[in-house]
Specification:
Length: 238
């Protein structure tokens, strides 16, 4: 089987783990993601995952509760570790070998980030979960996804969302909004489309790393995408 992407970085938001809850982790969402990732892994795709922590704690909103920005960002990084551990557990329940890697050292639960070791895990067919963001404050998990994807030489970032791509307007508010099949980095910037935060987006643009925005909640989308089916929106200058 010919695969369009052989090594991918899957970016998931923490909020998507909530399901119908107001916060926390919904077991059915964990199971859904684990089964999707297992299918992809069984096709021989090398998979790295970066997951946000917004379902547990948002660093940017911490200042509203009197918590200093840097401290709040570190708390957000720890939230991504909790999500990473949950996803690791769900994947291993499905029989998928994983490695949880943290940008902040916590030896009892995760490996420290060493680029060559992470790449070796991927080559051995293990799903690598990158947690704790970049390890530094002022960077989002989008930035962590862009950084790690470039470091491991991924073929693309697959950004799983609730909508099936990038639209001319918000499809949940405007029924006439049309989906882009492909769009360039410069068009996204000039139109002010909110795909990723600017730091992450610029890093992908400078390194010609394509981003695919797609609906992760629909079964079969992830595997179809890697096979080259017309799913989601491809952001690329190529």
């Amino acid at each position: 089987m010919e695969l369009k992407y052989k090594r991918v970085l899957l970016k998931l938001s923490g909020e998507s783990l909530m399901g119908g809850k107001e916060f926390g982790i919904a077991p059915e969402m964990l199971t859904h993601y684990a089964s999707q990732i297992k299918q992809l892994s069984s096709m021989g795709v090398e998979i790295a995952v970066v997951i946000g922590g917004g379902n547990i704690f948002r660093g940017l909103q911490a200042s509203q509760s009197g918590i200093e920005r840097v401290q709040g960002d570190y708390m957000g990084m720890l939230a991504t570790c909790i999500n990473g551990m949950a996803l690791q557990s769900a994947l291993e329940t499905h029989g998928v070998y994983t490695r949880l890697i943290s940008a902040i050292e916590m030896r009892q639960i995760a490996e420290p980030y060493i680029r060559r070791r992470a790449i070796r895990h991927l080559e051995k067919g293990r799903v690598v979960i990158f947690s704790a963001g970049t390890g530094s404050p002022y960077f989002t998990t989008d930035s962590a996804a862009a950084l790690r994807a470039n470091e491991i030489n991924a073929d693309a970032i697959l950004k799983g969302t609730r909508v099936d791509g990038i639209y001319t307007a918000d499809p949940e508010k405007d029924p006439t909004a049309e989906r882009y099949e492909t769009i360039s980095f410069s068009e996204v910037i000039s139109m002010g489309l909110n795909v990723m935060d600017m730091t992450a987006f610029t890093m992908c643009q400078e390194n010609n790393l394509p981003i695919v925005v797609f609906d992760i909640n629909k079964k079969g989308n992830l595997t179809g995408l890697v096979r080259g089916e017309n799913i989601g929106t491809l952001v690329s200058d190529k």
